[in-house]
Recover the amino acids of this structure.
């Protein structure tokens, strides 16, 4: 263990994780620095790229939830991966194009749509800046539904049935 109380493996793992998030280009430039003794050693290589890489997410349920969680964090909207996933599986089985054409909302002309089965008026009222205005967009649907659940129930984590 080093003098600062952290073992070398933990520091190396942390540096590697940060580089993975920064993007492949920065990681390739900084790979020789992973064995360096301090995180500050990676700074010169990262600044040589001249650009900050955006986080990318896979185009699947896991990626949509993770991207939504990042947007939610920026806007102070509470919720956890587990709570969101549980509700998505109950509401749409993970199908972002799901639509409910049979319940009272549909009878009234506003069917529930998307991963978390949000009706258009609720989606529009709880839309979160920086996401699409399309209720079928997975990230926009999750984020708006979580914003609504936070306002009504404190968090999507507190929802265990139709909301």
């Amino acid at each position: 263990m080093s003098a600062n109380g952290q073992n070398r493996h933990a520091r190396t793992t942390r540096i590697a994780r940060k580089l993975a998030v920064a993007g492949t280009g920065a990681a390739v430039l900084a790979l020789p620095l992973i064995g360096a003794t301090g995180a500050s050693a990676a700074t010169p290589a990262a600044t040589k790229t001249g650009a900050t890489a955006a986080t990318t997410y896979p185009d699947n349920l896991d990626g949509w939830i993770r991207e939504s969680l990042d947007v939610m964090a920026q806007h102070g909207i509470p919720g956890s991966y587990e709570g969101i996933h549980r509700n998505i599986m109950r509401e749409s089985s993970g199908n972002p194009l799901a639509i409910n054409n049979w319940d009272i909302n549909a009878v009234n002309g506003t069917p529930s749509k998307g991963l978390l089965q949000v009706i258009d008026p609720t989606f529009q009222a709880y839309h979160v800046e920086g996401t699409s205005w399309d209720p079928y967009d997975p990230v926009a649907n999750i984020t708006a539904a979580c914003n609504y659940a936070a306002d009504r129930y404190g968090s999507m984590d507190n929802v265990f049935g139709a909301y």
User: Anything to note?
Assistant: The longest helix spans residues 138-153. The two ends are 51 Å apart (CA to CA). The CA atoms of residues 73 and 85 lie 17 Å apart. The longest strand covers residues 99-100.
